[in-house]
Structures are given as C-alpha cells and as structure tokens.
Write a structure and sequence with these properties.
The chain is an alpha/beta fold and 392 residues long. 42% of the residues lie in helices and 16% in strands. Helix 10 (267-288) runs parallel beside helix 12 (352-368). The chain starts with 8 loop residues before the first strand and ends in a 5-residue tail after the last helix. The structure holds pyridoxal-5'-phosphate.
Length: 392
C-alpha cells in the first residue's frame, strides 16, 4: 500500500468519524471521578442523553461496547429459561440470539432472509399464539447494520398491544440513535440498547441502556446472574452523580460535546440529513446498475446502504483496492454475507461533500476492481443532493 495523503475516509457503519470538537474535548487531563467536577459532568451527560433517546426514563452508561449494553438488557430483565422472541434480520440480530442462548434463555428465533426488517404481523401472530405467556420479551434490532434494513418499532409496539401481550420490548438502537428518529417513550420501549461510536459521535467505549419503569420492575424479579451490569447499583450511584465503578471519564467529556453538537444541529435536522444521504446513495447504486441488499423501500436505512456485488466478484477484494488506492474503509459483508456485499456508511459527522467523496471512491474503485457497472452514480447522487434541501 502506498501512502495516501489527507484524512482517511472511514465509511464503515461505526465506529464513525469523530468530530474535531469531540476529539479536543476528550484530550483533557482526566479528573477525579469522585470529585465535584465529575458530579457536574455526570449530571450533564445523564440528563443530556434523555432527549437523545426521547425519554424521560433513566439512561445508564457503561464502560463497554454495544454488546455489553445488549447483555445488560437481557440479564437485568430475564430469568434462566425465559423465552425471548427474536427475529433474524441479519448478523447483529443473530449475535443477540446467540448471546441469549449462552445466557440460558430460550430464544424463539423467527427466520429471515437478511433483506427485510421485522414483520409486525409476525410479532402479533406469535404473541397471540402464546396463550400461556411464555414469551417474556420481544427483542429486535432497529437498524440492522449488517444489511441496511430498519424495522418499525412503532409498528412492533402496536403489534404487541394488539395481541394484548405483556412481553417487554427490548430494542437494539446501536446504529440508529443519533441518525434515525428514535422514540423510547412514545414507542413504549422497555429497554433501548445503544453505544457511543455511531450516531453519537464518540469513539468506542460507552454502552447505554434507557430503561422503562416496567423494565425496572422486571429487574427486581429477574434471576439471571449479573454484577457489573446491574442497573440497580448504577441507578443508585447515578442519582448522586457518581458511578459504582471507574467510568470512562474522557469519553464522557467527548459525549458531552457530541450531545451539544447534536442539539445545536437539532435532532430533526440530524434525521433529515441522514435521510437525504440514504436517498442520494441509493440513486448512485441504481445508476451503477447494482442492487441494494434491502428489498423493502419502507425499510431502507438512512444510516448505511449495503450493496450486492455482481456474481463472480468478491466484495472484499473490491474493498481492499478502495483502501489501497483511496485510503477509504468501506463496511464488509458480515456472517453469511461475507464477500457478497459491501456497505457504504453515511452516518454521524458527515456532510454532502463527504458523501460525494465517498461515492467517488466507490465509483473509481469499481472501475479499478474490474466490476461491471455503469458510470454516473456520483452524478445521480449529486443531482439528488442538489435538489433536496436540508430541513434547516
Ligand atoms: C446493530 C448492532 N448491534 C450490535 C452491535 C455490536 O456492538 P459492539 O461491536 O459495539 O459491541 C453492532 C456493532 O456494529 C451493531 O451495529
């Protein structure tokens, strides 16, 4: 690989590009995590996260990746042998299912083709059939980062209510929070799982749970073993502005700055910006004559677009060429999609010209890799960006 000057293009769907303001906020001397300055910081970030989740419920922060927060959602609410209704939307839903099984839960895993979101009618059907109320939780991934397909959490909530079922609703909003409209309270979500390194503009290392009153009540009876992940300890300490264990202090400096940036832009504008990028990217893919993996237009992700590689061409070889020539990282196909797709991320600290650069790198990379395609994708995307004004 030859040296490519200029900034690396990090176009994987998380970790996303970190704004300079956030990097500078992190680059400060670490403070005493039991002192008054930390208490002020903790209050600011704990309160500041609530509007981001669109909740008035407590949000807890772990020093962890997103997977830690996914584990916290299960171990705080469930008991050994409990049934969880889960949906095979892609790699991350499958990982969550595997985790549930390893924890001693019974996962009822509804098969999927990795090209759609969750079908709310299937949620209603399964819950209606569950007459003895064996299903204790419905666990879904809002934005399946491995496929670029979203699921309607509002429709899933309606399906649970239509079945009159008391199951908890657990949602992985890891790659949707801060990118796609997400409403913890309005959608009656019991636990929202998320983390720092995608729409929240902070490097990896912070995991989040937003927790409803119903979930907190379930935690009192839940018997899966837990210690580090225990909400009770966390919520009790947080009330005094501290954490039970050493927090990731400098990442919290970054989070405070990132939340200011999100609020300055306005969440509605953040969501509209991501919708525009999704639309422009799909126009590019269509002009190239390539296929988007997600086949349901209602489920298209505003945060990333997964693109199918033409048969006989290896998506990973294409990604390697793009990295070598243009110093740009594109997302790989995960799990059973390895080598078959590449993912273009358009989330986080990202603007029109960055998208133009990203799509230019893809178009030049397709040519360099000898992939059959039609030129003009970048032009189609630029036309789309030019005619759609931002929400601000
Ligand atoms: C939807 C989703 N769930 C779970 C995870 C796992 O998160 P982490 O790698 O931070 O543990 C990811 C990571 O990309 C994800 O996108």
């Amino acid at each position: 690989m030859w040296a490519v000057p200029g900034r690396h293009f990090l176009q994987i769907p998380g970790p996303s590009n970190i704004p300079d303001r956030v990097l500078r906020a992190i680059a400060q001397p670490t403070i005493d995590h039991r002192g008054p300055a930390f208490v002020a910081l903790a209050r600011e970030v704990l309160d500041g996260l609530q509007p981001v989740f669109q909740t008035s419920e407590p949000v807890v922060i772990y020093a962890s990746s997103g997977t830690g927060a996914s584990e916290a959602a299960l171990v705080n609410t469930l008991s050994p042998g409990d049934t969880v209704l889960m949906f095979e939307t892609g790699h991350f839903a499958t990982q969550w299912r595997d985790m549930a099984v390893r924890l001693g839960l019974h996962a009822e895993f509804v098969p999927g083709d990795w090209r759609h979101g969750v079908d709310p009618r299937e949620v209603e059907r399964r819950l209606t059939d569950d007459r003895d109320r064996a299903i204790k939780a419905v666990a879904v991934v809002h934005n399946e980062t491995s496929t670029g397909a979203t699921s309607s959490i509002a429709a899933i909530r309606q399906a649970i209510d239509a079945a009159g079922h008391p199951a908890l609703l657990l949602v992985d909003a890891i790659s949707s929070l801060g990118c796609i409209d997400y409403r913890h309270d309005e959608w009656g979500v019991d636990v929202t799982v998320s983390c720092s390194q995608k729409g929240l503009l902070v490097p990896p290392g912070l995991g989040f749970n937003a927790i409803s009153a119903k979930a907190r009540a379930s935690a009192a009876a839940a018997r899966l073993p837990r210690s580090y992940w225990d909400w009770q300890l966390m919520i009790k300490n947080n009330a005094a502005g501290v954490f039970p264990f050493t927090p990731a202090t400098n990442l919290l400096f970054g989070l405070r700055e990132a939340m200011r940036m999100l609020m300055d832009e306005g969440l509605a504008n953040v969501f509209a910006r991501h919708l525009r990028f999704g639309e422009a990217t799909r126009r590019a893919v269509a002009a190239w004559g390539l296929e988007v993996l997600c086949v349901d237009p209602a489920a298209y992700s505003p945060a990333l677009t997964a693109v199918m590689m033409p048969a006989g061409h290896d998506a990973d070889a294409f990604r390697r060429i793009v990295l070598q020539r243009f110093d740009m990282s594109l997302g790989a196909g995960l799990g059973k999609l390895k080598g078959q797709i590449f993912r273009i991320a358009h989330l986080g600290d990202f603007n029109d010209l960055m998208l133009a650069g990203t799509l230019s790198g893809v178009e030049m990379g397709l040519a360099a890799a000898g992939v059959p395609f039609t030129r003009g994708g970048v032009t189609a995307a630029l036309d789309s960006l030019a005619c759609e004004t931002s929400a601000s």
